[in-house]
From TrEMBL:
InterPro entries: AAA+_ATPase (IPR003593), P-loop_NTPase (IPR027417)
Designated name of the protein: AAA family ATPase
Polar residues bias locations: 8-31, 257-274, 510-551
Taxonomic source organism: Pseudomaricurvus hydrocarbonicus
Upper classification of the organism: Bacteria, Pseudomonadati, Pseudomonadota, Gammaproteobacteria, Cellvibrionales
Region (Disordered): 1-31, 253-280, 503-551
Amino acid sequence: MTPLENPALTTDTIDTFSSQGSESGKTHGEATTTLRLNTQVTSDFSTTSLSPVTIQSTGLSERLLTQLCCKHLYEAGMLTAHSLSQKMALGGAVVDEILQILRRDAIIEVRPNHAISATLRYGLTERGRASALEALAQSGYIGPAPVPLQDYQFQIQHHSIHRRVVDGPMIDKVFANFVIDPNIKDQIGMAVNSGRAIFIYGPAGSGKTYTIAQLPGVFGDHCAIPYAIAIDDTIIEVFDPLIHEIINDVQPAPGGNETNDAIDNLGDSSNNHTINDKQNQKNSLLIDRHRDPRWLLCKRPVVLCGGELTMDMLDIQFNPATRQFQAPLQLKANGGIFIIDDMGRQKPSPAEIFNRWIVPMEEKRDFLTLGSGRHFEVPFDQILIFSSNLNPLDLADEAFLRRIGYKIRFDYLTTQAYQRIWESQCHQHDVPFNPDTFAFLLTELHQKNRTPLLPCHPRDLLGIARDHAYYHQETEVMTTKRLQWAWNTYFVDLNENNIVSADEAEQRTDSSTLATDQTVSDRQPLTQSAKHPTNLTNHPKPDTSFQRDAP
């Protein structure tokens, strides 16, 4: 059944959503506001993707399905109709129709079954093996049947991440256990609602990527991901188990008998299923006649790439060894979040990467090309986030930065925020919080080394100190001596005048006092001193592009 045949969705709803990005004079966020307010988004896709019952209702060609069936039989040698139904993620009626075509053309034959069973088993004839080899030479894909591009476009729009409205309580819930600037938290929530790209920047270690990666939890729902999509008769794999997390507690679709009648009538008694096995089958997405089993319910994906990003990763990938097509990263990120981290560290120039996203950001659609030269359009339905510890103006001109709706700056921490993170990490490492040790950390290490406070420091320093204690089989993890050792190990300092021994650190403990509610960077200018030559050390020098002006 095609999307337009579904009575749960009207043509007006589809047309309204399809035209949301093309309304004259409106941004994407403005165009979707009315739709968000007037359309109730449902998480259950059983009403929008019904299981096909004929070859025609799959939206795929007879040639594609028969070739896929031949490849499965070639790989397995011999299969029952029930097994083929599960492997191809198609209902029994569709598989039966495919088998009838293959038997008519002498591609398959019924194999003798020596077991006491009425189940028919199918294998390839000589002609069938030749057909399977020919099909494998064209495409090495052997898996569930794909969905047509039109159905994919519809489902992505129906489960669009931009149709979800985020408010303050939702953001507060996700970041309840985070130490985060309230202004940054509010900016993130507003940026998500805008439907526009986001640029986050700030010094390395300020928690940019870790914070943004929590965003899918804000939505609290899921999206539909197909195993693969079909462009004409070319199959492109979309589902990636490293990216897409399947929701296992899928409830059977309401109404009637959940099992596929055609499969039940095959009489596969050779498997000797127990009652529990049959109940598991009834709850399985693969044999739920109300849902299209070619789709999987998954948590909204998060795709993260950094310095390894190359331009070819944003196009259809073809593996000549397996003769399979893989979807690009942004296609796998549809319905979720796509984070390009460490902008400015990639082999392609920032201008090349930014220019790649001009059309997708503006029109919410992307254009891809197959090796044959076939061009096609796919939805670009995701929150695109750029992250960098470099100055944004060094990466792109102001004209492009204006296309990015929100620029969010992550900065150094205040002493209070730093202490909260330190106490939290002490709890996680099962280390008692010692105010004197924390005072030593602030005054003798951070201040004297002119090192700003970053969220990554507590976790890393405590981890190194714990490793040191375990190695020496000591129960007291956090002492000033061990903290000094962890500091010297964590930071790179080639100037011998700056290295403080662990014994000397103990002598400084008495003079340490708790820092005030003021950042280290505010109290002392974060500039190079004579004791820290630029060409000899790299840890005391802060990233001056994000330095606050001294009061």
